[in-house]
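Translate sequence into structure tokens.
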Amino acid sequence: MTLLWICLGVAALLLLLSLLTAYICFYKVFYTSRKEHPTEEFPIPEGEIYEPFREQMVAWMKENRQRVSKDLYVTSFDGLRLHGRFYEYAPNAPIEILFHGYRGSAERDLSGGVARCFALGRSALVVDQRAAGESEGHVITFGVLESRDCLAWANYVATELAPDVKIILTGISMGAATVMMVAAEELPPQVVGILADCGYTSAREIIQKVMRDRKLPAPLLYPFVKLGARLFGGFDPDLRSPVSSLQNSRLPVIFFHGDTDDFVPHAMSLENYRVCSSEKRMVTVHGAGHGLCFPVDKEGYLQALREFFDPILNQ
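Result follows.
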């Protein structure tokens, strides 16, 4: 009997340690508090690679704050109020719906995207993803649930905002994963293409890559990350991925990635491009770090987009 109680005690302790580890992983990887959101006047991503572009990024933010814009809202499938800001270039201009990266916000990550859209004669709807900016929520899901939010935004634009206008879905980093995950979904016919900038192949791959960068045992810890997501976040990070969606893509996709990106490896976009079953183009920007393809080569970026999308938009 004593041995039985010892075994039960050990089992209970192991279970408790597993749950505690899963919760810590969930809190570190997926949870965000509103208090964590940037409070500086002009937030830019952290890291030395962004410093040479600080003035340009701040100028884009200032420019956008002077533009006429409209706040828009949709309700997610699970009841969150999601926020976006619409900048109209001209009536009936094509619209890009833009999605930002992990722990970012629409203003921080997408102000340059608005300038780029206007340079191409397009309107821009920049979205605060769930748990970011002015949108509700506290759980980041690496595109798994955000992709369902993307569907909600596409349907809103196609049915209420601009029913007669063509739509492009655009994302950077996690935002790119978000839009790639809808590549195989039934979308409104107004949606004509996807722009994926420095996106990863799957939540599993990018989480394990960051763990390895931090000298953590990725194969050992990832099961606890997944358990934490399911128990405390209510989602499965392996439910869908860019790679699995792109294999049955219904839309043309253009991929951008810098060859010196040390956060999301360039090889991930090459893999996404390789498996994509629809019309596609891969653009590698030499010397661009994570999320910096457009600032590093504005003219090349714009020209690639014109070449890829103009025939589609002019059909």
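Note: Residues 78 and 145 are 9 Å apart (CA to CA).
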